[in-house]
Amino acid sequence: MNSRLFSIIRKEFIQILRDPRTLMMILFIPVMQLFLLGYAATTDVKNVPLAVWDQSRSPESRKLLDAFRAADYFRIAYDVGSEDDIRELIESSDARAGLIIPPDYSQRLLDGDAQVAMVLDGSDSTVGATALSTARLIGQSHAAKLMQEQAARLGRSAGVEPPLEVRTQVWYNPDLVSAYFMIPGVIGMILFAITSILTATTIVRERERGTIEQLIVTPIRSWELVVGKLMPYVILSLFDTLVVLALGNLCFGVPVRGNLGLIITLSGLLLLSGLGIGLFASTIANTQQEAMLTTWMTLLPAIFLSGFLFPLEAMPAVLRWVSYLIPLRYYLVIIRSLMLKGVGAAALKSEIIPLAVFGIGIMTAAALRFRKRLD
Predict the structure, then answer these.
(1) Which neighbouring-strand residues pair with 165?
(2) Closest CA to 311 of 51, 175, 129
(3) Which three-class secondary structure state does DSSP give residue 120?
């Protein structure tokens, strides 16, 4: 090999090894992508939280519930006492489906015309479609088993008509249109990605050009500098949100059933998180390239583990726990519930509170570190 070329290659390797940030990103990002794509990028939905209103409380109804448990697609998470309880759980996204067993289920089963109702949350089209087909299959399978048991007990061939029918109903998105699921997610990704990337790079750009020192020596206070730098991106991001909302409604027919003012207000909580992450990255990075790589290390988990592309129910338990550390996870539940379900803030408090805590926490930490760097 040419000695000059070898010297340049050796020099570049030495520089990489002496820069732990670059080395960590080179080694860590591919491993992170491998695990995210391997475990999170799946649509094999399992463990869908199910709310059950069992009015029969009979051995026959317990056998039906055992059939749903055995299928491994549903997880009986709530035992409720009314249809209103099921509606509240689905509106808050704590449950994705509801099973209603009538009080005369046992007698109707003996008569051969039992019916149970299955209510599904259609705001997530992937989960809704899988749950819809699975519920019907479970009902058909359990009905076939009951027919065989009846035939064996009576000593005759099985009847033609199944003794059980699972009647399904999809709420909020009856046709399971995928755009209803994706467009609210796009709003979240725009708010999170634009604010974090642009905030990080614009402040580092000032530092690279040397203009940050000129601003420091002016009478401008550090908090005024931070707010002044961030405010344009807040305004532009909220404008993008309104544009996507309008185009999604006009071009794709995505409904906006919730209060528009509440949508903008709660979007501000995600903006707080995105701005905080971008500001924090700007205090760590020395160049725009480093700032971009640092923010991408937060964006990759956000894309795969927030429920933006792949349902959380399809992920392993470990990754579902990790997703609770991602602010976009909470916002996607909020924006989809507001747009498709038309719920109020009270139904979303379990998402609003952690999103607010995360946003205020990261912004406070970033602002304190940024002020120290200015000093």
Answers:
(1) 115
(2) 129
(3) strand
**pLDDT at residue 186 in the model:** 84
- Grade residue 304 by pLDDT with cuts at 50, 70 and 90: confident
Contacts of 43 (CB under 8 A, 6+ apart): 126, 130, 310, 311, 314
Distance CA 79, CA 56 (A): 13
pLDDT in tens, 46-72: 788 899 999 988 888 888 888 888 877
- Residue labelled with tokens 């979007």: 267
Sorted by where each starts, the structural domains of the chain and their CATH numbers stand as: 48-171 (3.40.1710.10), 177-374 (no CATH)
More reliable by pLDDT, 45 or 272 = 272
User: Quick count: other Cβ atoms within 10 Å of Cβ 198?
Assistant: 20
Q: What is the residue-averaged pLDDT of the chain?
A: 80
The answer on pLDDT for 324 being more than 80 is: yes
How many residues are there in the chain? 375
Give the residue among 322, 339, 328, 325 at the shortest CA–CA distance from 306. Answer: 328
Q: Which two tokens stand for residue 270?
A: 């995600």
Contact 146, 301 (CB under 8 A): no
Highest mean pLDDT among 24-28, 33-37, 125-129, 359-363: 359-363
Burial of 60 (0-12, 13-18, 19+ CB in 10 A): middle
- Between the CA atoms of 369, 370, 373 and 375, what dihedral angle is there, to the nearest 10 degrees? -100
Which helix (H) or strand (E) segment is 44 a member of? none
**Tokens, residue 96:** 């994705």
Phi/psi for 50 (5° steps) reads: -120, 130
Q: How distant, in Å, are the alpha carbons of 11, 96, 170, 286 from that of 130?
A: 55, 11, 12, 47
Average pLDDT over residues 114-125: 86
**β-pairing verdict for 114-121 and 97-101:** antiparallel
Provide the 8-state DSSP code for 348. G
The pTM score is 0.79
As given in the structure block, the two tokens for residue 234 are 């807040």
Q: Helices in the chain by DSSP H: which ranges?
A: 3-18, 20-35, 59-70, 83-91, 105-111, 125-154, 178-209, 211-216, 222-252, 260-284, 288-305, 317-323, 327-336, 349-374
